Amino acid sequence: MDGITLPPELERYAAEAMSTGRYRDISAVVQAGLSLLRQSDAELPEFVASLEDARAEGERDGFLTATQVETRVPGSDRKRRRSPPVSSDFFTRGQHAISKRRRNASPKADPIRRRPLCMRH
């Protein structure tokens, strides 16, 4: 198993994990990843079974319409607001703008509003 080849992005991630001291070597990084994969594979059948049980219950007892769900949920009698459609890159652009503001902010300023965090008199 010594001849493991990782894509460049995973090599960088593993190197960063080792440099921060979270893992002692590449073997520990791979071991942690395989442990998570094993856990995920073990939980998958139970999850699929719960979905199948929910579907069977819905077919047996009937499904609720959206209106029926709204009447059963507390606080759903408020007027529903229609939000404008969001483009697929909305969140990416927003995160980029926040990161850019944080890079340009002074260390004693709030990174979003660029106001001083404390005032001295």
Characterise this structure.
This protein has a domain at 7-72. With 121 residues, the chain is mostly helical. Residues 113-121 have low confidence and may be disordered. The protein is elongated and about 55 Å long. It is built from 4 helices and no strands.
Q: Average pLDDT, to the nearest integer?
A: 77
Note the run of SSEs as H and E: HHHH
Radius of gyration: 25 Å
Shape: elongated
- Tell me the β content: under 5%
- Given helix and strand content, the structural type is mainly alpha
Count of helical segments? 4
Low-confidence parts: 113-121
Biggest β-sheet strands, sense, barrel: none
Helical residue percent band: 55-70%
Distance between the termini: 65 Å
Total number of beta strands: 0
What is this structure, in a nutshell?
This protein is mainly alpha-helical and 121 residues long. Helix content is 58%, strand content 0%. The radius of gyration is 25 Å and the shape is elongated.
